[in-house]
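#onboarding

Welcome to the new folks! Below is a worked example of what a typical request in this channel looks like: someone posts a single protein sequence, and someone else replies with the predicted structure as tokens. Don't worry about understanding the tokens yet, we'll cover that in week two.

Example request:
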Amino acid sequence: MRRLWLGLLVAALALAVAGCSAVQDKIGEEIGEEIAGGIVGGDVEVDGDSVTVSGEDGDVTIEGGSADLPDGFPDDFPMHDEAPVDSASSISGAEGTTYYVNLTSDLSPGELHDWYKAEFADGWTEVSDVSAADGSDETYIMSVKKGDIEATVTMASEGTGTQMGIILVTK
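Example response:
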């Protein structure tokens, strides 16, 4: 009889847990963290859109997938109003943070290049500025630095507009 009651209690608890999505999500998250931690050889913590891996060499946090700039993205890095963010992510570790930002614009790569060239003239050091053209297709790759920030901006023709990528590293 005791075994029957225990079985009913376990079944009732399972149904209660199955009905509570927050508990299910938390259990799934914990199981996923354990599996990932075993694979990478460290402790894995998932928190919303971020994942932190803690190992012998320190912590690495990966955030991303949003159409907003990640937390901590430098305020003084120029962002063109007519080039909205499509997606952005970041990876943080002991050596600093690397930000990846993808943007699109109806402006041409040349127009964006000229705007960034003017913006970077104020306090940024140009490391390189390379361009290539093939018919109506244009590509520009600019690298700049300022203090502990290094960035590369890529602008390339895509249809009638421009695809842009920013890789920015802070130390």
